[in-house]
Design brief:
Blueprint (H helix, E strand, L loop, with lengths): L15 H4 L14 H12 L10 E7 L4 H9 L2 H7 L4 E8 L12 H17 L4 E5 L4 H7 L6 E10 L9 H8 L7 H4 L2
Length: about 190
């Protein structure tokens, strides 16, 4: 069984790490080394942010190591639970909605947290670790399970791991996993 690699067919030359990025649902039963996990978090730490606020926070769940993994998995919708349970790491991204320096609303928290996840994702790819971000989860359940205060917003749940063969997925998911990646044309994206 060969793992799938989906390289983007771009209109212009891009860095390989950007062309290689995609969101698999088939993960190998292979743990991610602690050193690599710390390296991914270090990449997120060095992401830019408004006023250098660094509003992002992460909850890390490592399979078979602590209760965090099962709490995160239980927050996912059933569709995502069915495939994400194979990922060796589940992670939640959150962000503080007010600035620490003056307690005023941070209107850039989502943007800045998204950038930190992007840095983490690109660093992950340099280690052949793939990240699949999900919106299909219960934010209230995450906040309750981890006792997250109201000053933080929960943004995404991510599955991290090494890509495996699509053969272990259901027919519908296997089809999605092996379909060529698509993007909108430039003229659609530019006002």
């Amino acid at each position: 069984m060969k793992s799938i690699i989906k390289i983007a067919k771009t209109d212009y030359p891009l860095l390989d790490i950007i062309k290689d990025r995609w969101s698999p649902r088939s993960f190998a039963d292979k743990p991610i080394d602690d050193e690599i996990l710390h390296t991914l978090l270090e990449a997120a730490r060095w992401s830019p942010s408004a006023f250098n606020e660094q509003p992002w926070r992460f909850i890390l769940g490592v399979k078979n190591e602590d209760g965090n993994y099962s709490k995160i998995l239980e927050s996912l919708v059933e569709f995502n639970q069915n495939w994400a349970k194979n990922a060796p790491v589940l992670m939640v991204s959150c962000g503080r909605t007010t600035f620490t320096r003056n307690d005023k609303p941070n209107n850039y928290v989502a943007y800045d947290t998204g950038q930190s996840v992007s840095y983490l994702t690109m660093q992950a790819l340099s280690h052949d670790v793939y990240v699949h971000q999900m919106a299909g989860f219960d934010k209230a359940k995450i906040k309750e399970s981890f006792n997250i205060s109201e000053e933080y917003e929960v943004f995404t749940v991510m599955a991290l791991g090494y890509v495996d063969s699509a053969d272990k997925l259901t027919y519908d998911l296997k089809k999605q996993e092996t379909t060529e990646r698509q993007r909108k044309a430039h003229n659609v994206l530019i006002f």
